[in-house]
Amino acid sequence: MKKDITKSTLITNQNQTAMKIKLITFVCILGVIHIFSACKFDKTGEDESTSTEDILTLDDMDGEPEILEDILFLFPSPGEIVEGFFNSELEYKPGLVNSVENLDSYLGSRSQALNLGIYVADLAYLAKYGISGESVDYLEAVQSLSAQVGVSTEIFESLLERAKANINNPDTILLISNEAFYKMFTFLETSKKESTLAIISTGAYIESLYLVLESIDEFKEDDPILEQISEMKYPFDNLLSRAREHKDDKNVESICKYLNAISQTFDSLTKEETETIVTRNEGQLTIGGGTKFILSAEYFKELKSTIHSFRTEITSI
To answer: Where do the structural domains in the chain lie, given as residue ranges?
Structure first.
């Protein structure tokens, strides 16, 4: 079970925004092995450009605790999530995204932050499918709502210029959507506005999963995308953990109901344990195996219903 949902996009974006990503990593806790694990690591100071590949298990690494301590989990952007899911057989569905015409109807910091996350995920979805004209509209919506929740709009100015200059280049638009998310993330982290960040991320993750689930018309037990959906448990768990750190904020407390319900559904899934394998190649650690979650027809239906309900509640005006 190779955890590769973010594919090369994550590595490319990691190289381009290294300083930003330093601020948005999670320290690896043993037993929490998931799809968004990738990091640069050089234990001995050797050149990371070597092409050798080592296959290790966690048992093999017992004597190298510094390796385990340096395995970091990225907080994946909606663009990276969308890129991973929609590289499959899923087709674009018109009408799934939240209309930008609703933008001015969202009042209050909680609603604005949640729907900012919604629009960030929608931007990535449109960019992935080359709906470039609308993508620029959604980037402008992201900029507008960002200002409402206290994010400097200056970070979007160059992104908008690039988006308009590359309106016929879906790959570039998708990269720009990732960069917009990380710039927001970095600004909020450095500004000590983690509570706002938790709310935005909740909206973004709910919308990302909504787009995927609503794109699947029929449950098929052997569909490989079901494993990818079940592994969304990990970013939701990480997000819930971070949100609980700011539960004194009434807005954060209110979004924990979404995260708790989603995490509880994931926790109900059948588990299958496999050996955790760590591959070290050119200074990069990739983690595979660990706990595999089986998404049954029953829980697929429950998760789809839950996400649909929450998303409707968030976007209602």
So the answer is: 7-44+55-315
